[in-house]
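COMPLEX REQUEST
Ligand: BIS(adenosine)-5'-tetraphosphate
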Amino acid sequence: MIIVLFGAPGVGKGTQADILAQKLGIAHLSTGDAFRSAISNRTPVGLQAKEYVDSGKLVPDEIVARIVEEAMATSDFSKGCILDGFPRTRTQADALSALLDHVGRDIERVVNITVDDSTIVRRLLQRGRTDDVEDVIQHRLDVYNQETAPLLDYYAAKGKLVSIDGLGTVEEVNQRILDALRGT
Ligand code: B4P
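STATUS: Structure written out below.
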């Protein structure tokens, strides 16, 4: 089972992906976490990704592809996975599609979590990660609207998209996602 958690920064993709991966017994790949870990370990990928993550820009597609291919080749991913924060561009969506075709798999659902911008800004300022400062958050939202949101039409046309309301408690949002995955 391959599930994509989709949405603007701070809608709760990472929060929900952790819980879903546990409940469904499948792996969780957060490209954001992978970059933060590479940055803190000062790996070559981390050194390349740092300036993009710090300024709220998208990391170039070829670096993202490398990290995703490596992760998905491990045995943890054999039962399936939750993709959190990937794909974020049309090039990444095409790369994912090619990768899954190659192993005879397909995305089951793309779950789009929706939250209004003012709540997003409040949540992220409260969290206070190094990229959670007001001008970087605004830039991340702009990048999302320009480069990532167009994928909604792409996945809707494939019949994969389901949208759920990301406002409410973490448990409420999680139940909505589980209901959407069960098709209720
Ligand atoms: P990510 O790590 O993906 O971060 P995000 O979009 O900001 O967070 P997410 O939506 O997961 O929010 P979370 O659950 O944490 O990206 C960071 C950077 O990495 C990007 O800007 C980019 O530079 C780079 N990157 C990552 N993937 C990339 C890709 N594919 N291509 C290129 N670049 C890439 O929730 C946020 C906060 O809300 C938390 O504090 C949480 O506790 C809180 N929260 C969650 N649910 C809540 C709820 N229901 N109620 C109240 N608060 C809630």
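REMARKS: The first strand starts at residue 2 and ends at 6. The mean pLDDT is 95.
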